[in-house]
Structures are given as structure tokens and as C-alpha cells.
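Study the following:
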Amino acid sequence: MVITISRQFGSGGHEVGRLLADRLKLRFLDREIIEQAARVGDVVIVGRGAQVLLGPLPDALHVFVYAPRQMRVERILQLRRLDHYDARKLTERLIDEMDRKRAHYLRVFYGRDWRQPELYHLMVNTGLTGISGAADLLEWWVGRFTARQAA
């Protein structure tokens, strides 16, 4: 099984992926080569265009994690222990820059728009679910998917 997680900067997608991998006892990969990772089989991969590169695999599940902008700003400020007006403005610019870079990467290397819903099986709003709730939802969903695959 391969689970790919794409995410907006500050949405908590990285943490959701790590938590899901821990719960399902899967390997967690973030900055490793995607082709090599796919050979491992049972893995959660965050980013790197894996939703496009591994899109055709029958046992691959593709997830997009997002959150409302204000929540993303607050989350980054908290993670970096920042709390003043200038830091908030810098964080907002950082969110824009990181999202733009992620979109650019997928467009340049794969000719796709990273926010295109057809690339994903599920899109999760951590603004509603929280990090742990998103992992709960994905864990349930993976169980349902694997049960259907086995039938």
C-alpha cells in the first residue's frame, strides 16, 4: 500500500502523514526519492509530486490536506514560537511563497495543478478535523479501502 499526502503549507499535512504512518505501522518518507519509495510498497509519502508519479498504482491512495489560511498562519506562528505583528506578516508571505513553490514544482515537473481534485481520492480540512482527527479519518478510510481491495 502506498499513501501519498499533498498539503498546503501550515495545514499539518506532514504531521498527519507521520501520525498515520505510525498508526498503520507504515514507513514514513518525506524527502526520499519517490521511485525508490514506491518499491517499499507499504509507505506514506508526503509531497514530491507522488500523487502524480504514483497515480496509476492500483493500491495507491492520494490525499490532499488543507486548512483555512488563518489557521495555517496561527499554526506556523505557534510551531516557530513567534507572536508579534511582523512575524505574522512574514508568516503570511511564507505561506504564499511555499504554496506557490509547491504549485510550481508540480506544474514544471508533471504539467499538473496540485489543487486539481482529480489527483486525489480524498481531501481533508484539518481546520475541521484537527491533526489527530485527520489521521483518525484516514486510518478508517485506509481500512475500508484495503477491505474492498481484498474482496
